[in-house]
Specification:
binds adenosine-5'-diphosphate; alpha/beta; single chain; about 220 residues; ATP-binding; nucleotide-binding; transport; ATP binding; 10 strands; ATP-binding cassette domain-containing protein
């Protein structure tokens, strides 16, 4: 079953084409990475998928329903941005609970799911801490927990680990893969790091100059016979 079906989606800013027409399917539960150099169109594709910018043309379906015109909130997609975007004045627990608060869930349900989400990213006991007290890797985990807590159908991660040192990056790669396995959530992950893409992904979408050049398994792309 296709979680996400993209048909001829493209984006131009005036005369400049940021993304050429893309047609692709992402399967339910799949871990897909958008890989390419700076300026290749990765962020643009991600922004089109989550509905942060309107496409210049083409269509996008989620679970078979046309979501081309749907707002970001209606798409049921969680996004982890490069800069975490945590609320600095809220505790870790309040940050993670926030998406459930605005959905008006019951307090006991919010607490339970908030604690479960923090447990999933290895931050049990951090509820009362402030974001500024945490390392970059821990903040990134909080941002991921804030997505996991409302169980979106799709999680997008944009260059999420690029600000971290190598060790923290490797640890988080493992964590995210484990969470992917355990939750069965569909992930789309953006990176310019080929090694990261190869270790993380079921399939890699190779981008260059606003085009999707290849979309295949790491093995098919990089195993030279
Ligand atoms: P990245 O390469 O990590 O995507 P950029 O610095 O290229 O980061 O882009 C950051 C933001 O600026 C994105 O939201 C992108 O859409 C926007 N952006 C990139 N290039 C331009 C441009 N030429 N004019 C206006 N906005 C741009
Ligand atoms: P990547 O994420 O791979 O670095 P982007 O999607 O940010 O690539 O950018 C792809 C191309 O589109 C770049 O040439 C960039 O300058 C251009 N672009 C992105 N956003 C904008 C924007 N808001 N206005 C004008 N050009 C943009």
């Amino acid at each position: 079953p296709f979680k996400l079906s993209i048909r001829g989606l493209y984006k131009a800013y005036g005369d400049a084409v940021a993304l050429e027409r893309v047609t692709m399917d992402v399967l339910t539960g799949e871990f897909v990475t958008l890989l390419g150099p700076s300026g290749s169109g990765k962020s643009t594709l991600l922004q089109l998928i989550c509905g942060l910018v309107p496409p210049s043309g083409g269509r996008l379906f989620i679970d078979g329903a046309d979501r081309t015109q749907a707002s970001a909130a209606e798409r049921d997609i969680g996004v982890v941005f490069q800069n975490y975007a945590l609320f600095p004045h809220l505790t870790v627990g309040e940050n993670v609970a926030f998406p459930l608060r605005i959905r008006g869930l019951e307090r006991s349900v919010i607490l339970r799911r908030m604690e479960a989400a923090l447990g999933m990213v290895g931050l049990t006991g951090y509820t009362e801490r402030m974001p500024s007290e945490l390392s970059g890797g821990q903040q990134q985990r909080v941002a991921l927990a804030r997505c996991l807590v409302y169980q979106p159908s799709l999680i997008l991660m944009d260059e999420s680990f690029s600000a971290l040192d190598r060790n923290r990056r490797l640890v988080l790669q493992d964590e995210v893969r484990r969470i992917h396995r355990e939750t069965g959530t569909t992930f789309i992950f953006v990176t310019h790091d080929q090694e990261e893409a190869m270790t993380m992904s079921d399939r890699i979408c190779l981008m260059n100059r606003g085009r999707v050049e290849q979309f295949d398994t790491p093995r098919a792309l990089y195993d030279t016979p």
